[in-house]
Amino acid sequence: MKEEIVTTSAVTPSDRAHLAELGRRSRLWSPGDEPTLVTRGAENTTFAVGDYIVRRSADLEAVDREVELLTTLARATSVPTPTPELHEAERGTFAYRRLRGTPLIHRRERDSKNVQRALIDVLSAFREALPVTRLPVDRYPNEEWHRDAVQTYRSVRSHLSAEQARLVRAFLDESPPPTRSLIIAQHNDLGAEHILVDDRGHVTGVIDWTDAALTDPARDIGSIYRDLGPDAAVCVGEALDGPPSDDELRRIRFHARCRWLEDVAFGIGDPLRRRPYLDNAWTTFDHTFAGGS
């Protein structure tokens, strides 16, 4: 889920009253702290208030599952992750203290070795914590990913250079790799916007586990391939699952390229507020689309 700060004016009176009442009862933030809307979707709404992030959802089961996942993960890894401090199951609401750091997507210089170590730590811990969590299964086939990518390309091609468009078309002209039947616990949206770092580029947290699911490991490794490069992706993938086969490398590159197109479309949708996504896309294009499938 892409997250971006919107405006305080987007917080409705009912939202404001609910957050104020939560703050009074929990004492996690002060009555004078002004809430800010982070995202509002069909089922999920996220606010920032004081030092906390508050998420509400109409899907009560999904909220229970995410709270359980985050609570378990916080005990299993040394990498900071959001830790719920408030959970109202009957209202589909939970809150956690904001993690310090800046999203990696805002940094041009990236300490890849440090980030790799942190990702290996947190993803390994996540898999080990799986028996006490409940994750949905995400079997979205690669054929659908490919069809989505073709549609996305049509919407963004006017923003690409002639050479970029040629390489993207060459990728889309190929058949997608077979969907993997073996599925493993994944963050499932492990982009640079969800990796927090300090001023030295050291990881201070991994956030937004809302889309976590049992799915193909190429999803997470593909995001790493896009944002940190092929060497980092191979390093993390090898630490988790052993040396990747040619078929696995093909699936990783496939998902990296599909995710790249997603981010370009997202950035173009509001280039003023989503500039980091576009900057990241232009910076990572060459290694993401280098070589064949």
Describe the structure.
The chain has 293 residues and is α+β, with helices and mostly antiparallel strands. The chain has two domains: 8-98, 2-Layer Sandwich (Phosphorylase Kinase, domain 1), CATH 3.30.200; 103-289, Aminoglycoside 3'-phosphotransferase, Chain: A, domain 2 (Alpha-Beta Complex). The protein has nine helices and ten strands. It has helices at residues 13-26, 60-76, 112-129, 142-156, 162-173, 218-228, 230-241, 246-269, 275-289; strands at 36-40, 44-49, 52-57, 84-88, 93-97, 102-103, 184-186, 195-197, 203-206, 213-215. The strands form three sheets. The chain has a five-stranded antiparallel β-sheet with strand order 1-2-3-5-4, with helices on one face. Helix 4 (142-156) packs parallel to helix 8, helix 6 crosses helix 9 (275-289) and helix 8 runs antiparallel to helix 9. The longest helix is centred in the last third of the chain and has 24 residues, at 246-269. The chain is globular, with a radius of gyration of 19 Å. Mean pLDDT is 92; it is low at 4-8.
